Amino acid sequence: MFDKKRILKNGEPAEATVLSVDQRSHLTSNELRDYDFVLEVRPENGPPYQADVRAKFWMIGLRPKTGDVVKVRIAQKSREVVFDLAGDPRFDVDAMNAQTEAKRAMLRDQPTAAFPGQFGAPLGDPPATAPATTAASAEAETAPAPKDALDQLEQLVRLRDAGALTPEEFEEQKARILG
User: Fold this and answer.
1) What DSSP letter does each residue of 76-121 carry, written as one string?
2) Quick one: which of 21, 80, 87, 179 has the fewest CB in 10 Å?
3) 93-98: which pairs have CB atoms within 8 A and are 24 or more residues apart?
4) pLDDT tens, residue by residue, 138-159
5) CA-CA-CA-CA dihedral for 75, 81, 83, 84, to nearest 10
6) What is the DSSP string of the chain?
7) pLDDT tens profile 95-121
8) CA–CA separation, 53 vs 81, rounded Å?
9) Nearest alpha carbon to residue 49 among 61, 36, 38
C-alpha cells in the first residue's frame, strides 16, 4: 500500500489501455473487491508494454472497464504500474460531481430562448395537428422505465460515496433493494 502511494506521488505519468479485467473472488464479506487488470502501458519515454495491476474497487463502483484509456503512474526502477484515477470523472465521484455541477451552471446561464417552452420562454405557435395517440402508447410514454437492482445499487453507492447517505441509511436501502 505504501509502495503504491509512493508510486502515485513520484512515479512517471503515462497512459494505458485496459486490455482485460477479472474479478478475483466473488465470495467476500465486504463491499470492496479485488480486480486484476491487464494494461497496455504507453510511457512518455519508451516503448509500450503490458502490465498486470491488482486494485480494489467498490462492488458496484466506478472502475475501469475493458477498452478504457486511463492515466497511470510507473515506478521508475521496477516499472510497477498503479492507476492514477483522481480527477477523472469516469472513476472519481468528486470529479464527477464537479463536472455535473459545472454542466448545471452552464445550463442555468444559457438564455431561456434556447429552450422554448421552458423557464418562462414563449412557446410560439402550437403545432397545426397533434399526433394521434392510443391509450397504450400514452401509458408507455408516461410510465418510467423500470430500474433493475444493479442500477439502483450503483446509484446508492454513488450517493454514499458522495456523503449524501449515512452508512446506516445505505445499509437500510441496500437491504430494501436486495429484498
Assistant:
1) TTT--EEE--TT-TTT-HHHHHHHHHHHHHHHHHS-GGGSTTSTT-
2) 179
3) 93/62, 93/158, 93/161, 93/162, 94/162, 96/62, 96/158, 97/162
4) 444 444 444 577 888 888 888 8
5) 30
6) -HHHHHHHHHSEEEEEEEEEEEES-S--SSSEEEEEEEEEEEESSS--EEEEEEEEEETTS----TT-EEEEEE-TTT--EEE--TT-TTT-HHHHHHHHHHHHHHHHHS-GGGSTTSTT----SPPSSPPP--HHHHHHHHSPPPPPHHHHHHHHHHHHHTTSS-HHHHHHHHHHHH-
7) 888 888 888 888 887 765 444 554 444
8) 7
9) 38
Would you say the pTM of this structure is higher than 0.85?
A: no
- Regions of the chain short of the pLDDT cut 70: 1-2, 26-29, 59-60, 111-147
Which amino acid, one-letter code, is at 70? V
In the structure grid, which three cell numbers stand for residue 124, read together?
Answer: 410560439
